[in-house]
C-alpha cells in the first residue's frame, strides 16, 4: 500500500471527519463502486466514442478509485500485490504468442 499511502490517508481523513466508516462495509463499498462505474458509463451513453466531458470523466474516475481504495483498505489488501497477482493470472490466460494484437477472449484463443 506504500505507493498509495498519502492519497488513501486523504480519503480516510475525509471519511473519518464525517464518521462514515460505520457505513463502509465491503458489500456497500462494492455497491457504491458499481454505482459510480455506472455514472462513468452514463457519460458515454448515446454518444460517439470520444464525445464526453473530460471534467466529468475525472470526477467519476475519482469516485471509482476512492471506493476501490476504501475496499482495499477495508480488507487490508496490498494494492501493488493484488495487481501483480492479477497481471500474472492474466498473463497465463493470455500468452503473448496467442494474444498479441488479438482481442479474442481467453477461452476462445
Ligand atoms: Mg459519481
TrEMBL record:
Keyword Translocase: no
Keywords: Hydrolase
Gene Ontology biological process terms from the UniProt entry: nucleoside triphosphate catabolic process
Single annotated GO MF: nucleoside triphosphate diphosphatase activity
Pfam families the record matches: MazG-like
Highest taxon above the source species: Bacteria
KW Secreted (keyword) present: no
Name this protein carries in UniProt: Nucleotide pyrophosphohydrolase
Annotated source species: Chryseobacterium aquaticum
Amino acid at each position: 500500500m506504500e505507493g498509495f499511502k498519502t492519497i488513501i490517508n486523504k480519503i480516510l481523513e475525509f471519511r473519518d471527519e464525517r464518521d462514515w466508516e460505520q457505513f463502509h462495509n465491503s458489500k456497500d463499498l462494492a455497491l457504491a463502486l458499481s454505482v459510480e462505474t455506472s455514472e462513468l458509463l452514463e457519460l458515454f451513453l448515446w454518444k460517439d466514442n470520444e464525445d464526453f466531458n473530460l471534467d466529468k470523466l475525472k470526477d467519476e474516475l475519482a469516485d471509482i478509485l476512492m471506493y476501490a481504495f476504501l475496499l482495499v483498505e477495508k480488507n487490508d489488501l496490498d494494492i501493488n500485490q493484488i495487481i501483480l497477482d492479477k497481471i500474472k493470472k492474466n498473463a497465463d490466460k493470455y500468452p503473448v504468442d496467442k494474444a498479441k494484437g488479438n482481442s479474442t477472449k481467453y477461452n476462445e484463443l
